[in-house]
Amino acid sequence: MTGSEGFIGRSIVDALLARQETVIALDRAHAECPAATETLIRVSGDIRDTSFVVETVRQHKVRAILNLAALIIPACKADPVLGAEVDIIGHINMFEAARAGNIKRVVYTSSVASKPRAPFNSPVNLYGVYKRTCEDIAKVYFLDYAIPSVGVRPNIVYGPGREVGETAFVSKAVAAAVAGEPFEMPFTGDVCLQHVDEIVDVLLRCLYASPDAPVVSDITTDISKIDDVASVIEDLIPGAKIALSDKVRPAPADLDNEPLRELLGVWPSISLREGIERTKRSLSQR
């Protein structure tokens, strides 16, 4: 798997090891990570390097690929070329590795940012454009090489440890409330939220699934409002001081998780209240 040191990646590694899987964890650096073991093999490298990625898969006899590595919205805006290299070229390299290793189980994270929205009925940031491109690349690799894949579109993923990116506000707001500090929401409007535990569960189910075609799907269709987030935090953490914003963030329309439901069946969802309670509990124990 790539992006093993990211917010979602760390939780996925733990979950796979708990299932007694051997994990080849590829990331740029592992400076602050637990030591490698027989079932956790840490590989430092650059997913933009095709030969390195292909050789890593061959060397370790990889049988499934989970690609989480990506630069997110702020980083893609700050360095569009690097963002394209990591998000698109890195994605292609995962499929090249799958082709070289005859791997028929590829899972990757796209994003709700890939979905078109106002004002031009297109993604509204480069990250979304890159992720939309990745979805189409996955389909072409099925057409050309019969490699099935599952691409899931998280939206705003929160939980303890989410500290980077435009949409880290839920975790930051809970952390501020636990610390007794004020927090201002960065924008207002409708949002689609998923706690990291649910994303991990869905990704694990995808890894063990056997699609017969490329699948691309939203994860949830449940919509909340920023006001709802603030209200739940204030209810669960007495004394929380959450200020709202007047800046409206465009929300995606026509969310659809039916392709994922058809592949996986029903999985347990985590409500906003339960997710914020889990985040609060984890932060309070630190």
Reconstruct the topology from this structure.
Elements: H1 7-18, E1 23-27, E2 40-44, H2 50-59, E3 65-67, H3 73-78, H4 80-100, E4 106-109, H5 126-145, E5 149-153, E6 156-158, H6 169-178, E7 183-184, E8 190-191, E9 193-195, H7 196-207, E10 215-218, E11 224-225, H8 226-236, E12 242-243, H9 258-264, H10 272-284
Parallel strand pairs: 1-2, 3-4, 4-5, 5-10, 6-9, 7-12
Antiparallel strand pairs: 8-11
Helix pairs in contact: 1-7, 2-4, 4-5, 6-8, 6-10, 8-10
Walkthrough of the structure:
This protein has a single domain, classed as Rossmann fold (3-Layer(aba) Sandwich), CATH 3.40.50. The radius of gyration is 19 Å and the shape is globular. It is 43% helix and 14% strand. It has 286 residues and is of the alpha/beta class. It has ten helices and twelve strands. Strands 3-4-5-10 form a four-stranded parallel β-sheet, with helices on both faces. Strands 1-2 form a two-stranded parallel sheet. A two-stranded parallel ribbon has the order 6-9. It has helices spanning 7-18, 50-59, 73-78, 80-100, 126-145, 169-178, 196-207, 226-236, 258-264, 272-284; strands at residues 23-27, 40-44, 65-67, 106-109, 149-153, 156-158, 183-184, 190-191, 193-195, 215-218, 224-225, 242-243.
